[in-house]
Design a protein that fits this description.
The complex is a heterodimer of chains A (392) and B (378).
Chain A (H helix, E strand, L loop, with lengths): L1 E5 L2 E3 L7 E2 L2 E2 L6 E3 L1 H17 L2 E7 L2 H8 L1 H4 L7 E5 L9 H31 L4 H13 L18 H7 L4 H16 L2 E5 L10 H13 L5 E10 L6 E7 L2 E7 L3 E5 L13 H7 L9 E3 L19 E2 L3 E2 L7 E2 L4 E3 L6 E3 L2 E3 L13 H9 L3 E3 L2 H8 L2
Parallel strand pairs in A: 1-6, 1-8, 6-7, 7-13, 8-12, 9-12
Antiparallel strand pairs in A: 2-5, 3-4, 9-10, 10-11, 17-20, 18-19
Helix pairs in contact in A: 4-5, 4-7, 4-8, 5-6, 6-7
Chain B lengths: L20 E4 L2 E2 L2 E2 L1 H17 L3 E7 L5 H7 L4 E6 L8 H15 L3 E5 L2 H13 L4 E5 L1 E9 L4 E13 L3 E6 L6 E5 L18 E4 L11 E8 L12 E5 L14 H19 L3 E5 L1 H6 L25 E5 L5 H5 L5 E6 L5 H5 L2 E4 L2 H14 L5
Parallel strand pairs in B: 1-4, 1-6, 4-5, 5-12, 6-11, 7-11, 14-15, 14-16, 16-17, 17-18
Antiparallel strand pairs in B: 2-3, 8-9, 9-10
Classes of the chains: A alpha/beta (392), B alpha/beta (378).
Chain lengths: 392, 378
């Protein structure tokens, strides 16, 4: 099963957001993997352990910043990421969710295309006049590039269990081999896209469902999506997905035909795998991992440039406005409050008050506050005052 | 067909063709949900400002009584699709239904609730109808919008106001596309007064299910109602919220969180006894998700506060060891907030009416003593 995990790099502390011309400068901020996307990678790992296959992560953002945070996903014991792709191009800057989904959806399609192409190449060779040796050489080349599963070609010593192996041994005719390759190609078509429910920076949770829509339009099918997934299983024979999700005070249980897209809630915990057909899983594995994240630029996507980045964005975000603290905010033992009512004061042309007893005086100029404290008109906000006001 | 290639976004949309403000209503226990009433109020504001009709959308099965309720609470028109196929919250089918309505009727805006269901509908639908999306809005305002980059004035555009990276708000516009698709954060608008006299001036239109025979790659196998929670955060006058901060003292030393829970319980009982105010204990998502062993069986998902948990609007919210992330604060609409946190920069302190920079394990006992010492209320 081809599993594509969408993984975003997010600012480590949202407080330190850097913007230039109102575009978030991801280059200038410390990044971490979006925590919800780590949950999705666990789901991807579960699927891979259950049915075999390959996990490709897809990220968008400055590649120099993303590489260091993505690389650990290869190494961690629980995660079986095989390949990482980073969509990195200044043309993508300033994307809203629509433009982001457009780019990411096109990249997903590209990944899918890349993984069916080797089957088409082999089927064409087999159906044509190429010699068995030429076919085997091509299969080995593609296998070494991590583009064919063990089931199609492998070099396990002493075994010739793959489709191409059987073809070379004469156990399968060319026609039979082509039929079996077509079946395997169909399995790659049942790919699954996984993502976190939302990112910790944008918080919109929109990109998942929108990517499903982009891929649908691109492939001319309707690729279903399910958000907030908490329960997941897959039938290894049919590759049908069983997913449970919580909407409101309801659990909705779904059966989904891949290809599909799911976003995972933080509550998701991979099930323990009780029994698994290891031979089948291993057959569906690919040769190994491509340990260096791959950078893709926008032109790889064959996308409409008018729909990328700021130009392709439908929404315009105005400058952020600080909401500030609620008026009259009081800090225990620190804020100064009036001990008695006071009339309106005009200090350096600015009006303050009038004040009631208990009103906070933090906005007054320091000199005025000092003067009023000395007169006993102001006092620090105490525990007793807090107690009296709290439930009044 | 939905799968046909869409026109590029650079294609110009005839903005004036698009009329009326649509709101996607949801139900709860056979009535419109409370947040749907809020959504009607928000939609009413936009419709009045743009000078168009407010249209309530009801898609479901056995909708009896709901269209009238939508009218009573502010809708001018209700478009109802009542079909058993809509009973199971099948996302793809509902999106198909909405898409077909939008293509036929061309609304100015369509607003969903920022619930699990509303979010995914809004996102996918916005892309499908080739428009933009602004999520989690707390307010809307219709204004003429000038964009200096395009050097163009967009008359009567919906300004969508949403929280942005913590303690700020951002204004968002979808000037060149229609319908403007948005989600509304529940708790942002008070519902309008119920007014059955509105029915005389309103219209309920029943529409058939489009593409009734269509089959989907996704099927709903089961819908299970979760049991009602025994914590009634929604109706409490005072809510005490516990966060991950209860796991440590201000000096960073580990604390047994059960002590914090006991202190919170003592405070709750005191407030209930002395002031007669219904008080409940809740928890931040962080604490609920941490599955702290000491709190097993005490704190669970029914206690979760914030955007993904229960949205509350108590008179007083007491936040103990809660940092106050944006999604947490988005779910709290308290008249007063008392927040205790050792980190002076914790966002919850900035949002609080009363902020206490310090250790909750020292503060709460003192607060209890202070409240105990107050003269009894008569």
């Amino acid at each position: 099963m081809l599993i594509i995990a969408l993984v975003k790099g997010v600012p480590a502390r949202t407080a330190k957001v850097v913007r230039v011309d109102n575009i978030v400068q991801r280059d200038a901020m410390e990044m971490v993997v979006n925590p919800n996307d780590e949950t999705a990678v666990q789901a991807a790992d579960y699927l891979k352990r259950r049915v075999g296959g390959k996990i490709v992560t897809l990220s968008m953002g400055p590649d120099a910043r993303l590489k260091p945070i993505l690389t650990p996903l290869y190494g961690a014991e629980a995660t079986g990421v095989d390949e990482e792709i980073i969509l990195s191009d200044p043309k993508l800057a300033g994307s809203d969710t629509v433009a982001t989904s457009y780019a990411v959806g096109h990249a997903v399609f590209k990944i899918y295309e890349k993984h069916v192409a080797p089957f088409d190449e082999l089927i064409e060779l087999i159906s044509g006049t190429a010699s068995i040796q030429q076919i085997e050489a091509k299969a080995r080349e593609l296998y070494d590039q991590n583009m064919l599963p063990n089931k199609v070609y492998n070099e396990e010593p002493g075994t010739r269990t793959s489709i191409i192996g059987h073809l070379v041994e004469g156990n399968l005719s060319r026609e039979e081999a082509a039929v079996r390759l077509r079946n395997e190609r169909a399995n790659v078509t049942k790919f699954v896209i996984v993502a976190g429910i939302r990112t910790t920076d944008g918080e919109t949770g929109s990109v998942g469902p929108q990517v499903a829509e982009v891929v649908s339009q691109k492939m001319g099918i309707e690729l279903p999506h399910a958000t907030y997934v908490e329960e997941l299983d897959v039938d290894p024979d049919s590759l049908r997905i069983h997913a449970g999700r919580r909407i409101g005070r309801m659990i909705q249980r779904l059966e989904i035909e891949a290809p599909c897209l799911m976003t995972f809630a933080p509550e998701y915990v991979p099930k323990k795998i009780q029994s698994v057909d290891f031979n089948r899983v291993i057959e569906n594995y690919y040769k190994g991992k491509v340990k260096e994240p791959m950078k893709w630029t926008a032109d790889i996507l064959a996308a409409d440039p008018a729909r990328l980045g700021f130009a392709g964005s439908a929404v315009i975000v105005g400058p952020a406005i600080l909401m500030g603290a609620p008026s009259g905010q009081k800090t225990l033992d620190k804020s100064l409050v009036f001990t008695r009512a006071a009339d309106k004061m005009t200090i350096e042309g600015k009006d303050y008050g009038p004040f009631k007893a208990g009103d906070v005086a933090d906005a007054l100029p320091q000199a005025t506050k000092d003067e009023l404290v000395a007169k006993g008109a102001l006092t620090p906000f105490s525990m007793k005052m807090l107690g009296e006001e709290l439930l009044a | 067909m939905s799968t046909a290639a869409p026109a590029t976004t650079s294609a110009k949309v005839n903005l004036a063709e698009y009329r009326d403000v649509w709101v996607f209503l949801q139900r709860s226990d056979g009535r419109l949900s409370n947040d749907s009433l809020e959504l009607l109020a928000a939609g009413r504001k936009v419709a009045d400002q743009v000078g168009q009709k407010l249209v309530g959308l009801l898609l479901g099965s056995n909708l009896r009584g709901l269209p009238e309720e939508a009218i009573d609470y502010g809708a001018d028109v209700v478009l109802a699709v009542d079909d058993p196929a809509l009973r199971t919250f099948h996302t793809m089918r509902i999106i198909d239904t909405l898409e077909s309505m939008i293509l036929k009727r061309k609304p100015y805006a369509i607003i969903f609730l920022a619930t699990e269901f509303g979010r995914e509908l809004a996102a996918r639908l916005a892309y499908r109808v080739n428009s933009g999306l602004a999520t989690d809005n707390v307010d809307f305002e219709v204004q003429d919008y000038f964009n200096p980059k395009f050097n163009e004035m967009f008359p009567k555009t919906m300004t969508q106001v949403r929280p942005d990276f913590g303690s700020r708000v951002a204004k968002i516009w979808t000037p060149r596309h229609r319908p403007q698709v948005a989600t509304l954060k529940p708790g942002s608008f008070p519902p309008l007064q119920r007014d059955p006299s509105r029915r005389a001036r309103s219209k309920i239109e029943k529409l058939p299910l489009p593409r009734p025979g269509k089959s989907y790659a996704l099927t709903v196998k089961e819908l299970v109602d979760l049991p009602k929670s025994n914590v009634d955060l929604e109706h409490a006058s005072v809510v005490i919220g516990l966060g991950l901060g209860i796991l440590r003292g201000a000096d960073g030393s580990p604390r047994n969180p059960i002590e914090a829970y006991k202190l919170a319980t003592e405070l709750k009982e005191l407030i209930e006894r002395k002031w007669g105010l219904k008080t409940e204990i809740g928890a931040s998502r962080g604490l609920v998700m941490a599955n702290v062993r000491a709190l097993e069986g005490i704190i669970n998902r029914d206690h979760e506060l914030g955007q993904t948990g229960t949205l509350i609007s108590p008179d007083l919210y007491i936040a103990l060891g809660v940092s106050g992330s944006a999604p947490h604060r988005a779910g709290i609409r308290a008249k007063k907030i008392l927040a205790v946190n050792p980190d002076a920069n914790a966002p919850i302190l900035l949002a609080a009416t009363y902020s206490v920079v310090g250790d909750l394990y020292e503060f709460v006992p003192k607060l209890i003593d202070t409240l105990e010492a107050l003269p009894d209320k008569d």
